[in-house]
Amino acid sequence: MLENKNILIGITGGIAAYKICTLIRLYRKAGANVRVVLTPNALNFVTKLTLQTLSNNEVYVDNFEIDEYKPEHIALTEADIFVIAPASANTIGKIANGICDNLLLSTACAFSKPILIAPAMNENMWNNPFVQENMSKLKKHGYHIVEPETGFLACGTNGVGRMKEPEEIFDRTVEIFSENKKLKGKKILITAGGTREKIDPVRYITNASSGKMGLALADNAYRMGADVTLVSTFKSDKPYKNIVTETALEMEKAVKENLSGQDCVIMAAAVSDYRVENCAENKIKKQGGVLELKLVENPDILKSICKTPNKIICGFCAESENLLENAKVKIQKKGCDFLIANDISRKDIGFNTDENEVYIIDKSLNIKHIEKDTKENIAQRILEEIFE
User: Fold this and answer.
1) Beta-ladder partners of 317
2) Which residues are registered as beta bridge partners of 6?
3) In 88-169, where do the E strands start and end?
4) How far apart are the C-alpha atoms of 106 and 8, rounded to whole Å?
């Protein structure tokens, strides 16, 4: 899997830096080409000569220390993956906040391919709320994390904060490249966001959906090699096709126009059940008393596409009570292959949050529970379940 891959390793100042010598050897043995960039403090723990010998390449520390200057932070981004190990609390915080005061950080800021981070630090530092907040930001934006383990730390105590062993970082690197190929050749259509039904030119009926879950599904599917079409109620600056719609009728039209040739459709959007029968052409003036609106039912997009042959159809179910009971009724009524059920009565997950907790139900009513996690990670788990 790593044959002829270009791997960039970033080493920060920490005692675990010496273990990266083993990681370099594992990558080289697997046929990868390895380059190394260090923070200045990392040189207190491992030497340039050692890293140059093991990688058989120039080792980089500062933009201006080489004989023939060029913007190295841009040149180094040509790698297929950037593995930062060990990653100190300082470096994690700076990456999460866009700070670029050394070559490693500048490279991370400019890097557009997968970044894998293996934190290493004291237990109290790891549990610091600001460090955890920075870790959440990185996960939210698609960084791959090899969580530290519990063990003997350099400070002489036992606790969480010890960097995972090089073999585990190596295995995670292989998994990332495998993920990029899992859905290669697959075409997936995903909907996201809450539709808006106009009352008049300035008012509308909508819901609290942010579209984060659908966007996370689209991002992960694209990273896993799929040809993605996102039908959303918002514009996203992504490398895959994005069709922007507003109303349920517009979304239905976009879905059906792009349905042909798709291997899978994931209806993650929160589509309004009703729309105003007659949208006012001009702004409705306040006249006092009661304003009555006549609502008519919107088409059921999910149900209407479930009988399409040779496609995996996955719907979403947002419930505020009796979650699993209602979800079982819905999947049988709709006829889809999978239904993702999430509890919108909880304030810590679901709408307008970066985390979720869901149940995946298949058409045989088998249920798999995915515990609370970032929407990025849950999106990956959903895709794995659908295509398993």
Assistant:
1) 341
2) 33
3) 115-119, 144-145, 149-152, 158-162
4) 13
Dig out the tokens for 312 from the structure. 């995996």
Residues 6 or more apart from 30 whose CB is under 8 A from it? Answer: 1, 2, 3, 170, 174
DSSP state of 19: G
pLDDT per position as a tens digit, 209-249: 999 999 999 988 988 889 999 999 999 888 899 999 999 99
For 372, the token pair is 């609370």
Beta carbons of 243 and 254 less than 8 angstroms apart: yes
Q: 252, 258, 215: which is closest to 236 by C-alpha?
A: 215
What residue has token string 């383990």?
Answer: 149
Q: Which residue has the tokens 């096709």?
A: 241
pTM of the complete model: 0.67
Q: Report the DSSP beta bridge partners of residue 38.
A: 11
| Contact (CB, 8 A) for 218 and 230 | yes
- Give me the active site residues, please: 155
Taking the mean position of all CA atoms in its chain, how far away is CA 363?
A: 26
The neighbour count for residue 48, using CB atoms within 10 Å, is 15
pLDDT tens sequence across 260-309 = 999 999 999 999 999 999 999 999 998 888 989 999 999 999 999 998 99
CA-to-CA distance for 55 and 8, rounded, in angstroms? 10
10 Å CB burial of residue 93 (0-12, 13-18, 19+) is: middle
Phi first, then psi, for residue 63 (nearest 5°) are: -60, -30
